[in-house]
Every structure is written in C-alpha cells, then in structure tokens.
Amino acid sequence: MSKPAASLRSEKGIVDSWTTVKEFFEHFRKQSFAYPYVLWMALFVVIPIILVAVYALTNADGKFTFDNFSGMIDYVPVFGRSLWLAFLATVVSLLIGYPVALAISRMSPKTQRILIMLIMLPMWINFLLRTYAWMSILENTGLINRFFASIGVFDWINSLHAADANYTPITHFQLINTNGAVVLGMVYNYLPFMILPIQSVIVKIDPFVIEAAEDLGADSATVFRKVIFPLSLSGVISGITMVFVPAVSTFVISKLLSNGTVMLLGDLIEMQFTGAAYNPHLGSAISLIMMVIVIICMSVMNRFGEGEEQAVMM
Fold first, then answer.
1. Cα torsion at 70, 75, 76, 81 (round to 10°)?
2. CA-based angle 227:231:235, to the nearest 5?
3. pLDDT tens digits, one per residue of 97-139
4. Whole-angstrom Cα distance, residue 57 to residue 66?
C-alpha cells in the first residue's frame, strides 16, 4: 500500500533540509581552510597599512592634517630618481633575462633544471653578502680596478695626456658610489625574478604552434614577433612587476653601493624612521605614496596583459 501524499512530502522535506544542512557544513569546512590566511593577512598586511595611513594623515599631536604630504615637495627629485633607476634596472633585466629564458626553454628538461638551479644558486646566499661582494668588486681598489691597473690601462691613459699640464693622473675608474653601481646591484639581485617567470611561460608554448607558423612561411623573426613573444607576454609582465616593485623600494643596495650619495625612496623612508630626522608621520606619508605608485604601475602592467591573446592574432 502506497504512503499518503502528505507523508511523502514530509519525508522529502526532511531529506531536503538534511541535504541543505550537509551542504552548509561542507561549505563551511572548505572555507575554514582559508581562515588562517585571512587572519594572517589582517594582522600583517591590512592592519599595518591602516596604521601607515593613520600616521600619514596625523601629526605628532594626533590631529588630522595633510601637511605630511605637502612636506614631500622637497623630495620630488628622490621620487624621480627612484622611478628612473628602477625603470632602468627593469629594462636591463628584461633585455638580459628574456634571451636567457628563451635559450633555457629550448634545451632538454634535464639541462633546464640544472641551469635554473644555477640561476637560483646566488639567491641562497644572504642578500647583504651578495651586495657586499659587489662592493669589493667595484670599489676604487677592487677587483676591476686592480685588473685594469695590472694590464696598464691607467698608465696608457695617463701617457695620452702627459703633455697636458692641467691633467690629473688617474689611478682608478669611479665605479662605486654612482647611479650605475646601484642599477648594477638591482639587476644582479633581481634578474632571477625576470628569468624564471618568462622561462616558465615559454616552456609551456606548444611546439606545434611554432611549427605551424614556420610551415606557413614565417621566418624566425616573424615567429618570435607574432607567436613566441605574444604568448610569453604574461611571463614578461610578471617579471617586470617582480623586478620593478622591489627595485623602486630598495634601500640596502643604494646605501651600500653608493655610500648614501644616491638616495632612493627606501633610503628616505628609513631615514624618517631610524635617522636623526626622525619623523614617522612624514615617513608614513612617503610610504603611502610609494604604495600608490606601485599599485598604479601594477595596474598598468595588468592592463597590457589583458590583450595578450588578441596580440597573437595581430
């Protein structure tokens, strides 16, 4: 004998309710894995940014003010120098890193793993030690200047100007304490961040796509320009972002390789928090502006990346 319709509806309602409860707890269980990360982000990212914003918008008495931002007018050259040197370091890293990544991606998997390990090997050494090593290489009595002196370069240059009474003989090239030394330090320390994302993208390009382009009559330059580079654009954008962001905010490299003569944003912020000109409110304002600049640069780069698939068809 079949059950009454009311009883069937009641049982169906109980089953549906139980299913809803199970789905709720299953959804809650899956989301619970994200709670530690959310807590970490709140404690060490969101709250510090809020504190920076509060300090930037207040004075020593805790009153709301915009004077900290107007006080940055005197440091506009520092902003320009930081952006310019970070841009140069990024461009040099791209010009060096892309050919290296392309060459590595065309080798056997075993060789690729070895070369990637060699590229990452310097990163296992402390950042400060790597920068100190460049100091010993670039300084006036460093390895490069001693090499040039040993082969007689300075003697040869001095002999060319021997007839000039106003000429001062040189004993070294001024390599350290220059903008070039800072850019060199940035490129050396951040170059792996350019190579690795580009290589990881290029190696995933289907070789049959390249073969198809060659079968259709495209030469090597055309294949690179219309196939390989557009398909690797996401890696290029990631590499540019990963190099530019730390380069524009670095302070250790500029402090050691320029002896404080090339002041960047990182040096300026450090000076406001730990130097004699202690002013955490101004330092917070500078930090906030720097974060805005970085976010704008990343947004622009992401906009370039949105059209990478359409670029393949051009």
1. -160
2. 140
3. 999 999 999 999 999 999 999 999 988 888 989 999 999 999 9
4. 6
The full set of domains in the chain, from first to last, is 75-139+175-313 (1.10.3720.10)
According to DSSP, residue 167 is labeled P
Residue 252, judged by CB atoms within 10 A of its CB (0-12, 13-18, 19+), counts as middle
| Pairwise CA distance, residues 79 & 81, whole Å | 6
DSSP lists the bridge partners of residue 58 as 64
Distance CA 2, CA 216 (A): 71
Catalogue the E-assigned strands of 219-262: none
Phi, psi angle pair for 143, to nearest 5°? -65, -40
Q: How far apart are CA 243 and CA 236, in angstroms?
A: 11
pLDDT tens digits, 185-241: 999 999 999 999 999 999 999 989 988 998 888 898 999 999 999 999 999 999 999
Q: Which of 297, 306, 302, 200 is nearest to 245 (CA)?
A: 297
Quick one: how far is CA 206 from the chain centroid?
A: 28
Residues near 188 by beta carbon (within 8 Å), at least 6 away in sequence:
122, 130, 134
Residue 128 identity (one-letter amino acid): L
**What is the helix (H) or strand (E) element at residue 112, kind and residue range?**
helix 109-120
234 close to 252: Cβ distance less than 8 angstroms: no
Calpha distance 176→138 (Å, rounded): 5
Q: For residues 304 and 239, what is the distance between their CA atoms, to the nearest angstrom? A: 13
